[in-house]
Amino acid sequence: MSSPSRPFKPVLDRLKKAGLRPTRQRLGLARLLFSTGDRHVTAEQLFGEASAADMPVSLATVYNTLHQFTAAGLLREVVVEAGRSYFDTNVHDHHHFFHEHTGQLQDIPGTSVALAALPEAPPGTRVARVDIIIRLSADRAAD
Amino acid sequence: MSSPSRPFKPVLDRLKKAGLRPTRQRLGLARLLFSTGDRHVTAEQLFGEASAADMPVSLATVYNTLHQFTAAGLLREVVVEAGRSYFDTNVHDHHHFFHEHTGQLQDIPGTSVALAALPEAPPGTRVARVDIIIRLSADRAAD
DNA sequence: CTGCAGTTTGGAATTCCTCTAAACTGTTGA
DNA sequence: TCAACAGTTTAGAGGAATTCCAAACTGCAG
Question: What is the reported pTM?
Answer without folding.
Answer: 0.89
